[in-house]
C-alpha cells in the first residue's frame, strides 16, 4: 500500500471514529443512562423517572401522579399508561422534560432506563483511546452462511442474564497465516453482520468482556472485509447500567488484535 493510499485509509478511519464518538456522546445516548431498573409486579417509583412502574400481562405500566407526564409518539401521556408487551431487544423512548425514559426488554425481563443529558458519566466523558489505524488489520474473509439461523445463547455482563441471538454463519480469515473463524449475527442493517469477540488484548489493553465489529454482509461463499480497526466497545465498557451480550463460544481469538478501541480510561 502506497503512502498516499495509507494516508487516505487513515483519514477515512479518523472520520469514521469521530462520527462514532459523536454518536456515543449523544445527550440521550447510553452514556446518559442514570439507572437500570428491572420491573416486577410490585409498583415501584424510581428517583430519576416520573411515575410508579410495574409489569405484567400488559407489559410495562406506568402510573403518573398529578403534575407528571410523559411525551410518547408526539402525544402527552398522563395517568395510567400500558406500553403493551415489548419484544426481546425492543424498546420505546418516552420524553420527560430534557430526559428520555427508555422502556425496553432485555433477557426476558422488562426494564426502565432513564437517560439524562447531565448524567455524570456523560459529563465526564473525554473520548476513547484507540490503536493507531493499520491497514494490516483489514483482512479478507469468506462468509459461510448457515442453512438457517441457529439460536445461540450467550452470556451477559449482568450475572444470571442470558441473551439468545440467531447466528447466521461464520467468517473465515487468516492472521499471519493462521486460519481463524468468527460466528456472526445479523447486523443493525440488512447488509451487515455483527461480530462479538475477545482476543489476547482483552483485559490487557482492551475492555475485558467483549468488543464488537460490524462487517459488510456478502452472499454466502463470497468474500468480505473484516476491518478490526473498527472494533468498538459496547456500552458496558462505560456504564454499569448496560446489559451487553458476551461473545459466543468460539469467538475468543487466540491472537492479539492490536486494532480498534482500547479500554476507556474511566472504566
Describe this structure in words.
The protein is mainly beta and 267 residues long. Helix content is 10%, strand content 37%. The protein contains two helices and 16 strands. It has helices at 3-24, 120-124; strands at residues 37-38, 44-45, 52-56, 59-63, 70-72, 75-77, 80-82, 91-96, 99-106, 109-115, 138-154, 163-175, 178-186, 192-197, 211-216, 223-227. The chain has a six-stranded antiparallel beta sheet with strand order 15-14-13-12-11-16, with no helix packed on it. The chain has a four-stranded antiparallel beta sheet with strand order 1-10-9-8, with no helix packed on it. β13 and β14 (192-197) form a beta hairpin. The chain starts with a helix and ends in a 40-residue tail after the last strand. The model has no long low-confidence stretch (mean pLDDT 95).
Q: What order do the helices and strands come in, and which of them pair?
A:
Blueprint: H1 3-24, E1 37-38, E2 44-45, E3 52-56, E4 59-63, E5 70-72, E6 75-77, E7 80-82, E8 91-96, E9 99-106, E10 109-115, H2 120-124, E11 138-154, E12 163-175, E13 178-186, E14 192-197, E15 211-216, E16 223-227
Antiparallel strand pairs: 1-10, 2-3, 3-4, 4-7, 5-6, 8-9, 9-10, 11-12, 11-16, 12-13, 13-14, 14-15
Amino acid at each position: 500500500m502506497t503512502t498516499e493510499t495509507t494516508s487516505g485509509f487513515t483519514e477515512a478511519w479518523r472520520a469514521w471514529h469521530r462520527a462514532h464518538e459523536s454518536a456515543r456522546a449523544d445527550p440521550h445516548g447510553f452514556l446518559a443512562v442514570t439507572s437500570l431498573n428491572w420491573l416486577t409486579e410490585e409498583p415501584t417509583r424510581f428517583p430519576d423517572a416520573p411515575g410508579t412502574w410495574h409489569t405484567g400481562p400488559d407489559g410495562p405500566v406506568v402510573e403518573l401522579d398529578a403534575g407528571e407526564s410523559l411525551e410518547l409518539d408526539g402525544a402527552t401521556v398522563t395517568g395510567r399508561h400500558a406500553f403493551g408487551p415489548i419484544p426481546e431487544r425492543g424498546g420505546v423512548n418516552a420524553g420527560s422534560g430534557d430526559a428520555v425514559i427508555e422502556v425496553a426488554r432485555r433477557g426476558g425481563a422488562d426494564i426502565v432506563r432513564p437517560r439524562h443529558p447531565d448524567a455524570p458519566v456523560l459529563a465526564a466523558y473525554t473520548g476513547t483511546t484507540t490503536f493507531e489505524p493499520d491497514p494490516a488489520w483489514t483482512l479478507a474473509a469468506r462468509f459461510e452462511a448457515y442453512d438457517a439461523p441457529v439460536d445461540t445463547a450467550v452470556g451477559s455482563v449482568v450475572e444470571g442474564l442470558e441473551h439468545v441471538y440467531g447466528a447466521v454463519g461464520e467468517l473465515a480469515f487468516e492472521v499471519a497465516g493462521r486460519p481463524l473463524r468468527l460466528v456472526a449475527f445479523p447486523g443493525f442493517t440488512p447488509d451487515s453482520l455483527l461480530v462479538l469477540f475477545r482476543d489476547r488484548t482483552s483485559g490487557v489493553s482492551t475492555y475485558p468482556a467483549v468488543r464488537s465489529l460490524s462487517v459488510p454482509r456478502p452472499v454466502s461463499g463470497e468474500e468480505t472485509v473484516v476491518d478490526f480497526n473498527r472494533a468498538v466497545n459496547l456500552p458496558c465498557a462505560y456504564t454499569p447500567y448496560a446489559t451487553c451480550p458476551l461473545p459466543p463460544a468460539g469467538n475468543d481469538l487466540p491472537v492479539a488484535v492490536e486494532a480498534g478501541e482500547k479500554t476507556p480510561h474511566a472504566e
